[in-house]
Amino acid sequence: MASSSDTRTRGFVPPQNEDERFLMRRVEELCRTAMQRGIPRATGFLSDREQALAQAALNREGCDFARFQGGWPDAERKVLCIEPPDSWPEEPVAVLHFTAPQQQGGSAVPGHRDYLGAILGLGLDRACLGDILPDPADARSVYAFVLEDKADFIASNLTEAGRSPVHVERCNAVPEEVLRGPERQTQDATVPSLRADTVLAAMMRTSRSIAAQAIQSGRVEVNHVPLRTAHEDVFEGDIFTVRGVGRYRLVAIGGKSRKDRIFITFYQY
Fold first, then answer.
1. How far out from the chain centre does Cα 212 lie?
2. Are 114 and 44 in contact (CB under 8 A)?
3. Closest CA to 235 of 262, 214, 206
């Protein structure tokens, strides 16, 4: 592999719709309220795309007293905490531990979708819920990061996930082995260019025409933004979501091979 690498990263993508513009206006409003009243303000949990929009709004307001908090160092979903100097901030994130009983007769243990559906089924918004982490040592055990002011409600009212009863309780700390999570198995490939359809085809182990068809049918997002054309460039760190297939992260873009192909490293979630 060549020693040089393409280290370009994707720049800020402006808001694409009214929901995204509303989010930026809301963050700007929270900044002004926090500064004028000297009190902390916070959002719900934000996706990585929403965090990028929120950061742009913070920059526009010149707000340098904010942080993103997801409850653990590698959190994907995070709460924006705006904390003016000399204010008294409160921790916005709580942790709940879900435990399913020993399954009998081959019954399935509740998974991520089951817990997500169960929590949203209580009438809560997606912004109330952060990351959901399974225990690699015990399939019956799952930890979820939730908004502090919703934790007791969830613990008191959630009694089942999927078709299984579950026990819910608050916990003060998540075991280290859970926070480490599964080790991602990276894969390497070479591509003739950094076009979206070419890179996606390599990651999906399929043909470029099938990848292009997925893009054209509107089934592909990059960093939570719909991918509009197959010939768009991709960048290191991009996350591809293919509806009905899965998610992929472009971890690294390397140098070129002797045949002038570009080395890439990626993994599938």
1. 24
2. no
3. 262
Q: What is the mean pLDDT of residues 26-39?
A: 96
Query: Three-state SS for 8?
Result: coil
Residue 43 vs residues 2, 84, 116, 127, 201: alpha-carbon distances, Å: 44, 15, 19, 8, 37
- 122 CA to centre of own chain: 22
- State both tokens at 226: 């719909």
d(CA 41, CA 84): 9
Residue 91 contacts residue 72 (beta carbons within 8 Å): no
Compute CA 29 distance to the chain's CA centroid, rounded to the nearest angstrom.
24
Express each pLDDT in 130-150 by its tens digit: 999 999 999 999 999 999 999
What would the pLDDT profile of 84-103 be if each residue is shown by its tens digit?
A: 999 998 899 999 999 999 87
Q: Contact 98/140 with Cβ under 8 angstroms?
A: no
DSSP 85-154: TT------EEEEEEEPPPP-TTPPPP-HHHHHHHHHTTT--GGGEEEEEEETTEEEEEEEEEEHHHHHHH
| Burial (CB count <10 Å: 0-12, 13-18, 19+), residue 39 | middle
CA 86 to chain centre: 31
Half-sphere exposure of 222 (CA within 13 A, CB side): 24
